[in-house]
């Protein structure tokens, strides 16, 4: 997936937080879906963990995986797909901390009319996937983004026996994260990436006319 810093190249920001690696795998699948659409690329970004120890700090560049998201990554995107594991039916604190720091983008309307979607992973099948997805949707709606789920024209929504919701892609990872993305989960991740990428290009074209 492209990691270009050129704001002139249209891109969908795939922003996620992952501790066990399953949400990161979903992000990669979503990015593959984005890049099936010609004329736009995926930009994978993560956020640092937070600690109750006020002296604890993370390196400015992660040891592995995606690099940390900046305000410019968010401001200049053509679309956003945001993912988090479930924490008691809510998004993880690290992602919430980052989103809480974006009030300047809210005040200046930099994300208004850009398409956005969300995704999540849980250890148990009914571990709060839908509430977590909606918790992530709320700040994006406040930013004026165009929130987009997954339509039931995606047949995997009707046949999945693992994760997958109309509110966004989801994954049942298992207690130890031992479950790989199912065929339906993978298809829904890629479909979500494709949908946001297509809408990002269309809405950007309309705004620029």
Written overview of the protein:
This protein has 209 residues and is of the alpha/beta class. The protein has one domain (11-46, 61-197): Flavodoxin domain (Rossmann fold, 3-Layer(aba) Sandwich). The chain is built from seven helices and seven strands; from the N terminus they run βαββαβααβαβαβα. Strands 1, 2, 3, 4, 5, 6 and 7 form a seven-stranded parallel sheet that branches. Helix 1 (22-34) packs across helix 7.
What descriptors fit this protein?
alpha/beta; disordered N terminus; 7 helices; Rossmann fold; 7 strands; 209 residues; single chain; 36% helix
Q: How far apart, in Å, are the first and last alpha carbons?
A: 29 Å
SSE string? EHEEHEHHEHEHEH
Structural class: alpha/beta
- What profile does the largest beta sheet have? 7 strands, parallel
- Helix content percent band: 25-40%
Count of domains: 1
Low-confidence stretches: 2-7
CATH superfamily name?
Flavodoxin domain
CATH class: Alpha Beta
Mean pLDDT: 91
Secondary-structure topology with pairs:
Blueprint: E1 11-16, H1 22-34, E2 41-46, E3 67-68, H2 71-75, E4 79-85, H3 93-100, H4 103-108, E5 115-122, H5 129-142, E6 146-147, H6 156-159, E7 169-172, H7 183-208
Parallel strand pairs: 1-2, 1-4, 2-3, 4-5, 5-6, 5-7
Helix pairs in contact: 1-7
Would you summarize the structure shown here?
With 209 residues, the protein is an alpha/beta fold. It has helices spanning 22-34, 71-75, 93-100, 103-108, 129-142, 156-159, 183-208, and strands at 11-16, 41-46, 67-68, 79-85, 115-122, 146-147, 169-172. Helices cover 36% and strands 17% of the residues.
């Amino acid at each position: 997936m492209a990691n270009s810093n050129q704001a002139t190249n249209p891109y969908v920001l795939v922003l996620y937080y992952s501790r066990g690696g399953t949400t990161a795998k979903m992000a990669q699948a979503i990015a593959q879906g984005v890049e099936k659409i010609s004329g736009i690329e995926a930009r994978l970004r993560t956020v640092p963990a937070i600690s109750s120890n006020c002296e604890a700090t993370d390196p400015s560049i992660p040891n592995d995986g995606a690099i940390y998201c900046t305000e410019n990554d968010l401001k200049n995107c053509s679309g956003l797909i945001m993912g988090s594991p479930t924490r008691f039916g809510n998004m993880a604190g690290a992602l919430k901390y980052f989103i809480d720091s974006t009030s300047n983008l809210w005040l200046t309307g930099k994300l208004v009319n850009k398409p956005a979607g969300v995704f999540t992973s849980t250890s148990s099948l009914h571990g709060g996937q839908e509430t977590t997805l909606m918790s992530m949707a709320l700040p994006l709606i406040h930013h004026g983004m165009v929130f987009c789920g997954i339509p039931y024209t995606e047949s995997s929504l009707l046949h999945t026996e693992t994760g997958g919701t109309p509110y966004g892609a989801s994954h049942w990872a298992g207690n130890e994260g031992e479950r790989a993305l199912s065929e339906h989960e993978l298809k829904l991740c890629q479909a979500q990436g494709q949908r946001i990428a297509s809408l990002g290009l269309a809405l950007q074209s309309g705004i620029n006319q």
